[in-house]
Amino acid sequence: MPRRLVYNFGGKKAQGSAKMKNVLGGKGANLAEMSNLGVPIPPGFTISSELCLDYLKRKKYPKILKQDVEKGIVRVEKLTGKKFGDKKNPLLFSIRSGSRTSMPGMMDTILNLGLNDSTINGLIEKTGDHRFAYDCYRRFIQMYSDIVLQIPREKFETLIDKLKKKKNAKSDLDLSGNDWKEIVKQFKKLVMTETKKAFPGDPREQLWGAIGAVFNSWNNPRAKEYRRIYKIPDDWGTAINVQSMVFGNMGTNSATGVVFTRNPATGENKVYGEFLQNAQGEDVVAGIRTPRKMIELKKIQPAAYNKLIGLLNKLEKHYRDLQDVEFTIEQEKLWILQTRAGKRTALANIKIAVDMVTQKLIKKEAAVLRVTPAELDQILHPMIDPTIKYKSLAKGLPASPGAAVGEVVFSSEEAVRLAKKDGKAVILVRLETSADDIHGMEAAKGFLTARGGMTSHAAVVARGMGKPCIVGCSEININLTAKTFTVGNTMVRKGDIISVDGTEGKVILGKVKLIEPEMTKDVILLLKWADSFRRLGVRTNADRPGDSKIARDYGAEGIGLCRTEHMFFKPERVAAMREMIIARDEAGRRKAVAKLLPMQREDFIGIFKVMDGLPVIIRTLDPPLHEFLPKDDKSIRKLADNLNVPFDDLKSIVVSLHESNPMLGHRGCRLGVTYPEITEMQAQAIFEAACEVTKKGIKVIPEVMIPVVMEAGELANQRAIVDKIAKQTIKKYGVKLKYMIGTMIEIPRAALTADKVAKFADFFSYGTNDMTQTTLGFSRDDVAKFVPKYIEMGLLKDDPFKTIDIDGVGKLLEMGIKLGRKTKPKLEIGICGEHGGDPKSIHFCHKIGMDYVSCSPYRVPIARLSAAHAALEEKFKKKK
Amino acid sequence: MPRRLVYNFGGKKAQGSAKMKNVLGGKGANLAEMSNLGVPIPPGFTISSELCLDYLKRKKYPKILKQDVEKGIVRVEKLTGKKFGDKKNPLLFSIRSGSRTSMPGMMDTILNLGLNDSTINGLIEKTGDHRFAYDCYRRFIQMYSDIVLQIPREKFETLIDKLKKKKNAKSDLDLSGNDWKEIVKQFKKLVMTETKKAFPGDPREQLWGAIGAVFNSWNNPRAKEYRRIYKIPDDWGTAINVQSMVFGNMGTNSATGVVFTRNPATGENKVYGEFLQNAQGEDVVAGIRTPRKMIELKKIQPAAYNKLIGLLNKLEKHYRDLQDVEFTIEQEKLWILQTRAGKRTALANIKIAVDMVTQKLIKKEAAVLRVTPAELDQILHPMIDPTIKYKSLAKGLPASPGAAVGEVVFSSEEAVRLAKKDGKAVILVRLETSADDIHGMEAAKGFLTARGGMTSHAAVVARGMGKPCIVGCSEININLTAKTFTVGNTMVRKGDIISVDGTEGKVILGKVKLIEPEMTKDVILLLKWADSFRRLGVRTNADRPGDSKIARDYGAEGIGLCRTEHMFFKPERVAAMREMIIARDEAGRRKAVAKLLPMQREDFIGIFKVMDGLPVIIRTLDPPLHEFLPKDDKSIRKLADNLNVPFDDLKSIVVSLHESNPMLGHRGCRLGVTYPEITEMQAQAIFEAACEVTKKGIKVIPEVMIPVVMEAGELANQRAIVDKIAKQTIKKYGVKLKYMIGTMIEIPRAALTADKVAKFADFFSYGTNDMTQTTLGFSRDDVAKFVPKYIEMGLLKDDPFKTIDIDGVGKLLEMGIKLGRKTKPKLEIGICGEHGGDPKSIHFCHKIGMDYVSCSPYRVPIARLSAAHAALEEKFKKKK
Questions:
Q1: d(Cα A406, Cα A408) in Å, to the nearest integer?
Q2: Which residues of B touch A663 (CB under 8 A)?
Q3: Which residues of chain B are within 8 Å of residue A660 when distances are taken between CB atoms?
Q4: Across A274-283, B474-483, B725-734, least confident range
Q5: Which residues of chain B does A664 touch, with a Cβ-Cβ cutoff of 8 Å?
Q6: For residues A57-87, b (16+ Cβ closer than 10 Å) or e, as one string?
Q7: Which of A204, A673, B406, B783 could form a disulfide with B787 if both were Cys (CB 3.0 to 4.6 A apart)?
Q8: The pLDDT of residue B429 is above 70
């Protein structure tokens, strides 16, 4: 048996402390902690959890327990001036379970223990509320009968329903004090019928019954199931807290309220809360009476108010966080019922964290760790006002965060017309998007597609543009002819207003209020701190000078992925790109390529200027061809006219270029290997641009990246081409320029043979989108048909295109790093898949030793924060 | 310095032996070996390769060498009765390099060394051939000048050309003896001009010059390059063979010929060869005179003939293989110039191997190892008569071996009409094939497609049917409207005859002669022996009772893959399949599925009956949907009529089912997980069939295989469904039936997490087609655009859809086996991808510890042989 079975708390001291969770449970330890702090909490005692298993086995208590509990009761009586079982001033107890870790609602609680036909009079007298007292009494009988006497709750509810019918009462509120008194009578009769014994009137008998029942509740089925799921050991047992009840409804000198130590909406460092005079805590929640502002309490009860303010300061300093405090004033005496970390908005959380560092309450590390990436994400995008309630019309995959409101349009042409000419906000709704939609996407505020996954064209472009996007929303049925879409029986027409929430993946009919994002100085400061803690570098995936500028402003330390083909999504450029793709011989390709060269060079010059002094990884051409090919006869005819070739010829070329599985087709370096002139042109554009800006005194660090490599020989082949052009160009310009040539590791075989690939690579960058496609055998464009169902069924924990699949793809990433660094110990390794902006994935990247992550410009702050979290968590884990 | 520098051979004994390749080189060791055997070879001596490097460094010889060479010459003079430098009966030598391993053509050879203005007279006298002697002389001068004196060959050729012009001679044959004599004069003059010295007349000076030059040739650029490529150490050096020349043109008592110890075309155990009287070996090759049958030699020179026959027996017994022997009779004396393993046809090789076992010349193991899988493959398919010369019109991927001849047709309907009704042989030419083409493929003799890879629809079906097929033949341009295809300027019309060689991938215009296959009793015996050596089991991929029967007759030990969806390629069944695929809800699917159930059950009953007593792995549905969906409006309309639904509705469903990358789409167990009713129906069909045949006393061992698993949970889910139905059905029928449930490992993630997957699997079967697609990121249908180029460039060693990519896919296979057996040490593991029939891949499967391979019925014999090779090679490697 343990040294001590019963631990007193209250009266500004306690026999336990916050450190004794193993013995006192979480709740008991906190009550002890508050006592020791001198916080006036209703006194009581905790029965050690070490007793629980012993009791469950033997079904009896050590003899000494009775004496210790008796001593505890006497101590509480002294501290409260009330007496257990006294009919004038009765002491009532709450009996609560409390294990080491919170198991909300799993075990039992009994309130108002100590009430009987005699003590009820004291309660009536003290509160002056006859109805309240009988309501308390009947609730106690009901709870006790359920938990201790094992009489089903329904039997009691039936009696109440009968009386309500009789009295024509709609709700419990319509029943009077005498009605409840009648109910008490009926309840006691029911207990007699069910147990063949009277309901126990003796408070001590009640107490011991309750103690046994709470211990037993450790083994009730739902508690056992909970432990199984959350892997909580069965032998921990639960402690029991026996605490005196206090009442805020014992006259006008009583009150009850809830108060935050700071403003939970804004973070402002000012007490914020509400109270009700002569009322119970439940009344605040019920909303029958309007609560009053805290400042009014100062007028009514200045002493209690001042004491409360002092305590709030004390609690916040002690817990070093915003506290959400429940208090009750019982006949001028202030009691703190509970304190806990307060829920708050993302903005408030950041402000509080930063302020607390300034106030030296917490360290910078703690402030950084306290802000979650999701919170940061929230405040960086327009969001639906969280105070607004709305019903969503349909749900899809949350492909790009933020929210937008606008008129529905079904084509990019409409989007451009309405947005550019009429200045209207539009939401582009498509089956799926393609290169042809880029101008429409630029014009629209947000996108909604019926097909596609987290890395589909629409999703990738949207994240790049920082616009909200929902993809794979298979609930919507689009009718392009009628220009409508339907969800069940609801029809949405062109021009109707909808709102899209890309953070949640929700489509809402009509307009909802949005909150605009703000990069406050608190955020900027917090991220600066984060930067000082992280080990991972943070780069960005940006294809144009504009994107690059945004990313650099957001703190990107270089470009991790510049997708050269994305530069050609602009309508006037798509034509040249298509000409190159459909060219049937080298001469034709060289002609088309020559048109592309100056465009590319100009783009690179723009990007290099913006990224002055920072590395820029440029990926050579990697179009899954279908993204660029004209699809319908109309587009083919247009292209044929442009190129001055017969429609039939072009059509047959387009047909011959069709691929069954373009993701696994003739793309990436396979194009460069079979058509070296394409790689040559790109290398020329990159190095001419680099040399030109170098001449202007700008520092350029180009890193040329070869995509879709599955075999070291491919990289060797492409490397030789790029190297040759680079050397020629640098010599021609007569400048000094260092550059690197590396590869994307995105095909499983590249990771499996990374030791060989590394021989020809100055760096690796993981293309986890493609690697997820191939490792899981999922087409990013087709997963909407089953991935949501898989997540629902628990077959997948997360969307693997959002969060790295650690068991599968992660294993390949680790293998690739190990093999690559076996060949080149200092090989630079990063990630440029969409996962580079996902917090969980960033943690994993940190863990397996990558050098940097790269993500879309708008996710750079999130990546900076996540990288800091990963580093700090590792640091603190090591300390332990 | 080594103990001995010069090793004599000839005169029925030698100082070396076949084991001394390191010192004597390959050629020298063989000459020694033949000497020791008592074979009369022209005598000579070998200068040790151990001297080579020393000479190359110091450019001089140890003193002792001169004496040893002198002794060697004297010995040869004694044995031949000729004298080195003698003008009556001159001894001439050939000087040849010979390193440990054959380096054909890399180093230098000098013939007829010892000729000068005096010894030439002896040669003329002995041969009576003035022209021959001067031709020999001028050749010797030319060779010697090139190799020893470093005078470019061209300068000599120019002199010959000039004389030819002058004499109006078209070829060297038109020059007379005197002409060559004139040339010799001019050559010597040229040498004088070039070297300022006369051409060396002293035979000993000639010899030492030649020895030095041959040693030097070890370091000529082409020899160095050859060593670099084949990784031959530079410090091996070369030996030098100095061998006396013999002449078959020294009168009518001389002859020369080539003889095989058995018939190299048929394998018949009867000497087979040709000779020419009073002629040189070159004359046989030149084809000016018609060689005579060996039997005639018996009449002309019975003694030499009998001696030769005796020697042939001796050589064959010694080398235990068919020998290809060159001999010369110089004035009644028989000399063996060379013996080597004879080239032979596949059929002959098998017969010889089997016969030699019967004759106790070799062991069964050796016989099995001697027959290559490629040879076996050859004789199991119709093949183009190898004696025929033809020009191929186009080349594609060799997708299914064998050859066929027929009229070109461009549609399956035409194929059926012409073949079935008119009884014509047809070749089906398509862009690519689909489920719609099955009846056409059944009717045609062979297939040719412009698109697709080694595992495309056409390829897989063709191998299953055992018909020749060429896929991905991108050279052909099909015009369906005109019913023609063109290759460059050649146009082939419907009805034109073409031949297709699926073994080589060649398309031939017109008809070529074919040889029909034969499963001889030798083959059957050889394979029986092979079975006794192999450790790998051999199963088959068969989808119908007919295939299963063929495979069992070929020796399959079970079915490794029964593709249930293939059962529905028949036109009358495709409709039901389509109905299921396009059903939009569970009710619709259940209706369609109910139609499929009896068809499936009947198929399974048929297969189970054929495979009585052997295991049958049945894979649940795995259609990449696009293989079954109607593609054009015509087919959609037909289906709509069948199903009695409006065309527009069906069309929109088909559009919505379109997948961007069907290989990575909603297929395999993803269908079963999202639509469990499909798996339920299939399980029901399998177990009802199994129970029914069990009742009839047939032994059924069903193994249900779940495809496209990427996560253990998927398998757990499908396993539960199958298990439930199996138990229910077995109970209903009241039979005893053991079954297994396992999975295909074909997605990289399944291999990476095989330890988890194995928890729910009774067996693994590797689907290496899909795993190749995903691991390399190659779509089997789209690779024709770059894989041939990759192989040509050396970026890929083999087509990865034909031979397992060991570095990438192989690594995953090994990993999967290791992880899987970590969980279940006795887990049954096989392979059912197309690689299961590829010899190289089978070796790998053996090496990594698989239990069996499974391949198409027609490849079962090849797999049996390859598996035996793998086991035997492992055994012999271990012995070493």
A1: 6
A2: 660-661, 664, 777, 779
A3: 626, 662-663, 779, 781-782
A4: A274-283
A5: 661, 663-664, 773-774, 777-779, 782
A6: eeeebeeebeebbeebbebbbebbebbbbee
A7: B783
A8: yes
Between A380 and B536, where is the model more confident? B536
CA angle A700, A702, A706 (to 5 degrees): 170
DSSP A566: G
Catalytic-residue membership of A473: no
Of the listed A832, A843, A845, A855, which one is catalytic?
A832
Chain B residues within 8 A of A790 when measuring between CB atoms: 673
Q: What is the rounded CA–CA span in Å between residue A682 and residue A521?
A: 41
DSSP code of B344?
Answer: -
Query: How many CB pairs lie under 8 A apart between chains A and B?
Result: 172
The shortest C-alpha distance from B766 to chain A (Å) reads 15
Instruction: Give the dihedral sign, CA A671/A677/A678/A679.
Output: positive
Copy the structure tokens of residue A335: 């009691």
pLDDT band (50, 70, 90) for residue A626: low
With CA atoms as reference, the chain B residue closest to A770 would be B777
**Catalytic position from the list A52, A136, A439, A457:** A457
- Tokens at residue B568, please? 């529905």
Helix (H, G, I), strand (E, B) or coil at B500: strand
A624: burial class by Cβ within 10 Å (0-12, 13-18, 19+)?
buried
Taking the CA atoms of B153, B159, B163 and B164 in sequence, report the sign of the dihedral they define: positive
The answer to whether the CB atoms of B673 and A795 lie below 8 A apart is yes
What is chain A's mean pLDDT, rounded?
Answer: 91
Residues 6+ apart with CB under 8 A from A5: A47, A48, A50, A51, A62, A64, A65, A68
- Provide the token pair at A113: 């223990």
Residues 6+ apart with CB under 8 A from B147: B108, B110, B210, B213, B214, B217
**Residues B439, B457, B626, B869: which is the catalytic one?**
B457
Q: Mean pLDDT, to the nearest integer, of A729-750? A: 97
pLDDT, one tens digit per residue, over B499-556 is 999 988 999 999 999 988 878 899 999 999 999 999 999 999 999 899 999 999 999 9
How far apart are the C-alpha atoms of A186 and A181, rounded to whole Å? Answer: 9
CA distances from A364 to A251, A345, A375, A529, B801 (A): 47, 20, 17, 7, 56
Indicate the residue of A670, A748, A795 with minimum beta-carbon distance to B774: A748
Name B617's bridge partners. B703
Report percent pLDDT > 90 for chain B: 64
| CA–CA gap between residue B17 and residue B12 (Å, rounded) | 12
Q: Choose, out of B710, B789, B811, the residue to mutate when testing the contact with A (most A CBs < 10 Å).
A: B710
Amino acid in position B860:
V
Nearest to A786 among B674, B746, B796 (CB): B674
- Integer distance in angstroms from the first to the last C-alpha of chain A? 31
One-letter amino acid of B290: T
Top pLDDT among B432 and A36 is at A36
Q: Which of A456, A651, A660, A671 to mutate to test the interface with B (most CBs of B within 10 A)?
A: A660
Span B729-752, average pLDDT = 97
Cα–chain-centroid distance for residue A790? 20
Q: Give the pLDDT score at A456.
A: 76
Rounded mean pLDDT, B114-132: 92
Please state the φ and ψ torsions of residue A613, each to the nearest 5 degrees.
90, -10
Nearest CA in chain A to B658: A782
Residues of B in contact with A623 (CB under 8 A): none
The side-by-side arrangement of strands in the sheet containing A323-330 is A292-293, A272-277, A255-260, A323-330, A333-341
pTM above 0.95, yes or no: no
Give the residue among A743, A594, A739 at the shortest CA–CA distance from A681: A594
Question: For residue range A142-200, what is the model confidence (pLDDT) as tens digits?
Answer: 999 999 999 998 899 999 999 999 999 887 878 899 999 999 999 999 999 999 999 99
